[in-house]
Amino acid sequence: xxxxxxxxxxxxxxxxxxxxxxxxxxxxxxxxxxxxxxxxxxxxxxxxxxxxxxxxxxxxxxxxxxxxxxxxxxxxxxxxxxxxxxxxxxxxxxxxxxxxxxxxxxxxxxxxxxxxxxxxxxxxxxxxxxxxxxxxxxxxxxxxxxxxxxxxxxxxxxxxxxxxxxxxxxxxxxxxxxxxxxxxxxxxxxxxxxxxxxxxxxxxxxxxxxxxxxxxxxxxxxxxxxxxxxxxxxxxxxxxxxxxxxxxxxxxxxxxxxxxxxxxxxxxxxxxxxxxxxxxxxxxxxxxxxxxxxxxxxxxxxxxxxxxxxxxxxxxxxxxxxxxxxxxxxxxxxxxxxxxxxxxxxxxxxxxxxxxxxxxxxxxxxxxxxxxxxxxxxxxxxxxxxxxxxxxxxxxxxxxxxxxxxxxxxxxxxxxxxxxxxxxxxxxxxxxxxxxxxxxxxxxxxxxxxxxxxxxxxxxxxxxx
Length: 465
Prior knowledge:
- The structure is a single chain.
- With 465 residues, the chain is an all-alpha fold.
- It has two domains: 1-112, no CATH class; 118-462, no CATH class.
- It has helices at 3-38, 41-58, 63-77, 93-112, 114-117, 122-140, 145-168, 171-200, 209-227, 230-245, 249-266, 270-288, 290-301, 304-309, 318-336, 366-390, 398-414, 424-462, and strands at 348-352, 356-360.
- A two-stranded antiparallel sheet has the order 1-2.
- The longest helix has 39 residues, at 424-462.
- It is globular, with a radius of gyration of 24 Å.
- The relative contact order is 0.11.
């Protein structure tokens, strides 16, 4: 065969290899268009989940990106019915999000093997065991079964995606998927926003798509700066516009806090690191302390353009006061039930200064959520888990490290990001990819040592009689 013929055959194979993926995404795009025009978005998200599960079965390294981006696209094309307020109708769409993610995750676990996926650090196993005990406690003490399963599902996904990323994750592949599909999904969000703008104008929405977009933006932005790739940086900014347009304060602050955090991790100068950490503290205060948040909002309202754009719901720090009230109530819960709180699925009551007496199974404050539903044992196990992550932070993984640190400092106070199924796969994945570098380095060292010992034994056997 001539060189030209061989080259032609090779090109045909490359084209053929990409044809199934092209056909799949063409079909999905067409289905999305039909579902948007004629209805049936529930069918779209389930078909998408099945298609992604097939891809994950064929290429397990796609699992972490498929799970995260599936949740992101669900929040954009099939948003929660309760997105305009906590007193809106029940968010029934979440059942479809959870079911689709379960299909994708099951395919990954079946392909890799459950035993391998659950080969994770001891702190992660202990935290999962405590969550299981809290679920059993909640179930036997009157908590709604659906809430028990839903909340345990979030913790389970955190650990499962940690294991998947640890053993099959590919950071480079994930970055490419975020750059392509994450940015594409954010573009779909802008289409949605333009469509509803004549009705709602600039408005605030309740949901997790802001947190998801912010976490993706951090990883992509830092990687783009490190590699000097302008398209990645612009893609990250496009992702960040999602929480900005929805006026999700904590998600925007998470991104802003991550930038000096990444810089502090990369810098070698002690003085500059101190300066960066000081900036982190100053930026984090408006996301934690109500007076600091109110001061920032008052200053922003002095700018005429911003004052006209800001929705009324974000012009004060009431949501932060609510989180502090929730946290105070969970302290009372721990005093009565110190070990496992009231269990997963339990409800919390607190007296809101604006809405009166409220009762709900969801707790906005992540630390309050942890104390209410898993008690001191859950808090201790989770802190051990966080310490495991912190011990693996390095300059070589500045993006992942900064993202996880910012989530611990900012996001966790505003929402139970590590425990809710809509965001737990994100943080589990980033933690797994961070741990994977050290884990695989240790495996490589063990393999080299084993080979050296084997070679030494072979050499000694030559001189034996």
